[in-house]
């Protein structure tokens, strides 16, 4: 894969990581929005890079987000990842049900990035609230809740955070936001004025030194 060289900075050997984001949330509880924003910017940047390389992860969840010794995010477990091509549909239901997009529960074919984008919405909710937006006693109950698309908005969640969540957790995949749009969202850039989130650019080769 063309993605392989860059994956070194997207993934993290377990010996170098401080733990999963899931474990952090269990131990410390929900993150304040400022901390969640810093982590989520890294996640969005990494996933957008994958999508630029036509790779869809398909199993984004708190357990697959690792924290290194400096508390930076590393994405792990590309076991369900696949290449996608515009105009060609994928049809495999894979990943973790609480993070799965509604179209997967319906057995519909999908382009690729839109299922990761739904999962990112679930991740953001989890970072900020310490719980899942969609849950159930069994898979049938979970499926019904995901297909309704209704979730509780915690009283402490800011309006800007609620607004960005609603751009991710859209039942119709065609109306779901793109990551390019998210990079310009107000919430994700609060405190980063002048340093707005932008797509990663490959460093240019300096052939003069070759």
From TrEMBL:
Asked whether the UniProt record includes Kinase among its keywords, one would answer yes
Q: Which family does it belong to?
A: Belongs to the protein kinase superfamily. CAMK Ser/Thr protein kinase family. Smok subfamily.
What InterPro entries does its record include?
Answer: Kinase-like_dom_sf, Prot_kinase_dom, Ser/Thr_kinase_AS
Q: Give one GO term, molecular function aspect.
A: tau-protein kinase activity
Q: Which residues does the UniProt record annotate as the domain Protein kinase? A: 1-188
- Enzyme Commission number, as recorded: 2.7.11.1
Which catalytic reaction applies to this protein? L-seryl-[protein] + ATP = O-phospho-L-seryl-[protein] + ADP + H(+); L-threonyl-[protein] + ATP = O-phospho-L-threonyl-[protein] + ADP + H(+)
Q: Tell me the GO BP annotations in alphabetical order.
A: intracellular signal transduction; microtubule cytoskeleton organization
- The name on file for this protein is non-specific serine/threonine protein kinase
Entry-linked Pfam families: Pkinase
A single GO cellular-component term on record:
cytoplasm
Its EC top class is transferase
Answer yes or no on keyword ATP-binding: yes
PROSITE patterns xrefs: PROTEIN_KINASE_DOM, PROTEIN_KINASE_ST
Q: Name its species.
A: Micrurus corallinus (Brazilian coral snake)
- SUPFAM superfamilies attached here? Protein kinase-like (PK-like)
Organism superkingdom: Eukaryota
Q: Which UniProt keywords apply?
A: ATP-binding, Kinase, Nucleotide-binding, Serine/threonine-protein kinase, Transferase
């Amino acid at each position: 894969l063309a993605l392989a060289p860059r994956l070194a900075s997207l993934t993290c050997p377990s010996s170098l990581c401080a733990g999963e984001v899931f474990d952090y949330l269990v131990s410390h509880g929900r993150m304040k929005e400022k901390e969640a924003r810093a982590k989520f910017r890294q996640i969005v940047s990494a996933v957008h890079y994958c999508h630029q390389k036509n790779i869809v992860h398909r199993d984004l969840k708190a357990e697959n987000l690792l924290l290194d010794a400096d508390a930076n995010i590393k994405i792990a477990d590309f076991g369900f990842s696949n290449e996608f091509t515009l105009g060609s549909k994928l049809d495999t239901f894979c990943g973790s049900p609480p993070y799965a997009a509604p179209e997967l529960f319906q057995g519909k074919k999908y382009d690729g990035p839109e299922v990761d984008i739904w999962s990112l919405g679930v991740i953001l909710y989890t970072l900020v609230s310490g719980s899942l937006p969609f849950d159930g006693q069994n898979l049938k109950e979970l499926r019904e809740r995901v297909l309704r698309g209704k979730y509780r908005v915690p009283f402490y969640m800011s309006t800007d955070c609620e607004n960005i969540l609603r751009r991710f957790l859209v039942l119709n995949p065609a109306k779901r936001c793109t990551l390019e749009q998210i990079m310009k969202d107000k919430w994700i850039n609060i405190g980063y004025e002048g340093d707005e989130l932008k797509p990663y650019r490959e460093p240019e080769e300096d052939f003069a030194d070759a």
